[in-house]
Amino acid sequence: MMEHPNRKLQTHRPILLLSPMLLLKPMLLQRSNLSITPMLLLRPMLVLILVIAGMAPQKIFGQDAPTPPPMPQVSAVVGDQSVTLYWDDSAERHYDPFFESLVVYEQRVAADIFEEVYANPYNFEGYRVYKSTDPEFLDALRITDNLGNPERLVYEASFDLINSINQYHPASQNGQRIWMGSDNGITRIWEDNNLINGKTYYYAVVSYTHGDALPSLPLPVDPLNPEVILPNEVYRVPPLESLIDIEIRPNGEVITGINVVKVVPRAPSAGYIEPMNPEPVQLSGTGSGDIMIDAIDPGKLLIGHRYEISFEDTLVEGTTGDPELITKNFTLRNQTTGETLFEEEESFDRELPVREGFRLAFGDLVRRVAVDAENSFWVTGQSAPIHDFSFAVSSRTPTAFDYEIEFFDEPTRTSRVFTRGSTTFPESIVNFIVTNTITGEEIDFGYFANPLLPRDFRAVAYLSEDRVLIGGAGGVILESSNGGETWTPVESGVSVRIRDFEFVDPQNGFAAGRGGVVIKTTDGGASWSSPLATNTETNLTDLFFLDQNTGFVSGEGGLILKTTDGGTTWESLETGITRALNRIHFVDENTGFASGFVTVLKTTDGGSTWQTISVGTVANFTALTFSDDLNGFVGGTAGRISRTTDGGTTWAVLDAGIGVNINQINFISAQTGWLTGSNGALWKTTDGGTTWTRQESGTADELFGVDALNGERVIAVGANDRRIRTFNGGDSWTSSEVFNQFRSAFDDNGIPRSDVIYFLEEIDGVPGDESTGLIDTWSVSLIARSASSSGGLTVNPAAGDQLVLSTLKPFTEADLFEFEIRSENVPSVEENLGADILDDIRVVPNPYLVTHIAETSPGDRQIHFTNLPASCEIRIFTLAGQLVQTLDVNNPFDQDRYIWDLKTKDGRDLAYGVYIYHVTAPGVGEKTGRFAVIK
User: Fold this and answer.
1) 554 Cβ partners below 8 Å, 6+ apart?
2) Rg of the Cα trace of the chain?
3) Tell me, what CATH number does 50's domain have?
4) pLDDT band at 881 (very low <50, low <70, confident <90, very high)
5) pLDDT at residue 221 above 90?
6) Strand blocks (E) in 569-631
7) Among 296, 395, 765, 793, which is least packed by CB within 10 angstroms?
8) pLDDT, averaged across the chain
9) Do 112 and 230 belong to one domain?
10) Number of domains, the chain
11) What is the per-residue DSSP string for 869-924?
12) Which domain holds residue 298?
């Protein structure tokens, strides 16, 4: 070959001048002390003959020559018209020193500088399966050279590494190029079907290399010389195959070696029961993933043996640079014998070799800790669905634990001061605890009280001395039986802000809120109905009922609804305005008022028509009430109040000196009432509203709702979950303990907001907070849904609810699995077989012909009794009743036939004629039939 002066290709040794058969062809390896069949010598296989004669490739080419890979150890499991082959992985570690310093080509990297590209000495590439009905594999020798001479065997199956070394090797000899595979992946189990039961087959599994091929067969690129370089100028050492290990003795006896099996497919015995695969049991740990034990060769399973699978874990640097926990390796031991079948095996994805009759496999393995969404869920007794939740990694180092958040109706724990990034979250009193369910211990947590999440109470209903209700953002309703000293959540079934309560008596009442929600109670607020059919999603603001049946509700957009059947149906009334209405009040069944943004409306016909009236001032009127039929008040922004003393016919501005936005005015009698407003404003009148006196509420939070049982017992509620009470008419006020209830709600713009819980834990090897050593590992938040969402309305968690949070975890040192080989894992037969099962017994061939396909050689004489029970006796008689032979059958459960060599009990060949056979199966029955032996 002439070399271009600007291109450097490597020249190779004389090995390239010989036929590549040595490098690929599976060779029939004869024992050196045995004679060689003439048929083999007549083949045009110089290299093959030399190998048969005991000469290795090194003898031919010198010591510096490529070596074929080792032969795999092959086993076979026969089945009904099928055979399953499996083999070991010893060939996959094949290292060929020949390629250590073999330069495939040199790549120019500068004007006079070349970079050498070497072959890979780890040269194993794959496996090929050959099949024949002839021990010399003659019927598979069908690939010819360019002269038509049979050169190579046709393979039945080929499996190769996924490494981009595929297709044909560029090197060619005698018109043949070597197929290197299709990157279909390595497997060590192969099943062949549609075979003929009783017929003999030979299978060989060989390993092969890839020669000097590199992934994708790259070619040198020379920017100084654009001349095209052909692949076969670069890649010239084609693959090698391991030998086929089989011996044919002069008397025709066939001896198979380690990579050749001789099989005869057969059906299982009558009443055969398929074995079940062993099932591993997790003794300890919480690792996630499937472990499968597949019984490949039941005949080699060791009944009663126990096996143990253990793991090692390690911390590695994750994609973010922080440590991540992963599974490092596994070990499989036979606990009964103490033998280690796999030790610290790090490959979980590859198909593992069969050991002691079974194959271990892993599926759905978790590589890193992650959320187990399928096994994270709410446990609740509420009838309404709880908000969706988000369980996510908080920091970049999640922990491999499971958790449970349990909710209560009272303050339970205090969160830790916690800094995340540049934000520090203060301590918060909360109504839940977080437990690590693996360790059984409570854990610390940080709490983000979302400032965008509405936390106000708007509505108060003081029903009796021992029953008070308050309602507010997020559909929260609390009840108190001691005048507001302590509060207990009530299941409202909604998650929208409750704006108002209206009770017609201590048992029957209504609540209205955002999104057109109206709910009803008939037991004093202990339970509430599902939202009534208001047919609107407009935000509602106020309720007023004349009796149990007739009531009104106001809302945004000038909305007024009326019901005359206790809320079952609602009618929208025409108001003529589109401004928001904040309050509604009726003096009697005909006369009513509604107040809103710079608007006061009046009706005298039960709401059929409404007229705008003047009250002497302009404001966003957020308060409206009547202390009796004649005296009424409207109030709003900047402390503006107007008063009527004639049932609303005329109104006059009242100079009360309040000066803050007024939210509600409520009278407990004609003389005594309270009003609430911004900046903790709380004012009282004892002269029917002529004068008002400010009381010290003890809070700067805006107060919204107020109600009183009498002149002494009063409760007011407001922003930031504020609840204050007085038992002395307001001379002093006491605030209830405020704690955060984990929840989600829609803000005033309709956007769902949520608090967030951050789990705080210690992690070995990961620095945490300087003072506590804790790091935030997981976070939990809620996602509220509205009534119009696809999943329907959702609510906040209540007392007794539990949030179960599971993680997918890699197997760690804490994980230990065990399985045992039991009797059900090996083949068996039914204990009580019916006699009719013997009807399937057949004699093959019948009549017997000397040249039948089941005979392995012309000299063989045999007939097969098929479909037999595993244990039985066959007696052969002449037609005259003379006993010819007795055959005792004790087959394995997976074999249905007995092969008789046609020898009589005296050792003589069976004469031609017709014979009777009688099968006796203990506990099953008997079967009699006939067969013929003819010339």
Assistant:
1) 540, 541, 542, 560, 581, 582, 583, 584, 594, 596
2) 45
3) 2.60.40.10
4) confident
5) no
6) 571-573, 581-586, 592-596, 599-603, 611-612, 621-626
7) 765
8) 88
9) yes
10) 4
11) -SEEEEEEEETT--EEEEEEEE--TT---EEE-SB-TTSPBPPSEEEEEEEEETTT
12) 275-367+813-825
